[in-house]
Amino acid sequence: MALVNPLHPDHDPETKKLSEFFNETLGFCPNSVLTMQYRPAISKAFVNINKAVMANEGRVTSALKRMIAWVSSNATGCRYCQAHAIRAAERYGAEQEQLDNIWEYKTHPAFSEAERAALDFSLAASQVPNAVDAEIKERLYQHWNEGEIVEMLGVISLFGYLNRWNDSMGTSIEDGAVESAEQYLGKTGWEKGKHDGSRY
């Protein structure tokens, strides 16, 4: 089971109201947010930064942001966030061919060079030690402007927090996220791992 059990969605009315955002994104309020409610200031701050990071102010689409999140979560090994990111990418209109071949983004023709640059940035920025270098910068600036790069790094940083939170917490994964992960990631070995609700 999870390190700390999620609280009921009605526990904190302000968090509940803010969390309506996730009904569009995922179709449910994540157990991670329900756990953060033990300290409502954390849950409210998290939802607000999530909304700010995922707002679209340039050419970085909602679908690409979720694929950036998936690459970041894959780099850190958080299966909970991998499932959430691929589900959100699906719900925000990522092309079927991209969803089916997300593992092969570096070479698959469904991905543009601009998308590859963004996803390689996510991979490099999510590694420890950090692997962002002059080559990554040069490739980013071939396709994206400063504001768009800031948006991308906002997503990567947000999921750095979520990867640490959910993997340490062993957050139980919701059925909807499992369904999406099994559909798009199962063929390459995705499984619930510590998020199956029976470990710890």
UniProtKB/TrEMBL annotation:
<feature type="domain" description="Carboxymuconolactone decarboxylase-like">
    <location>
        <begin position="40"/>
        <end position="120"/>
    </location>
</feature>
<protein>
    <submittedName>
        <fullName>Carboxymuconolactone decarboxylase family protein</fullName>
    </submittedName>
</protein>
<dbReference type="InterPro" id="IPR029032">
    <property type="entry name" value="AhpD-like"/>
</dbReference>
<dbReference type="InterPro" id="IPR003779">
    <property type="entry name" value="CMD-like"/>
</dbReference>
<dbReference type="Pfam" id="PF02627">
    <property type="entry name" value="CMD"/>
</dbReference>
<dbReference type="GO" id="GO:0051920">
    <property type="term" value="F:peroxiredoxin activity"/>
</dbReference>
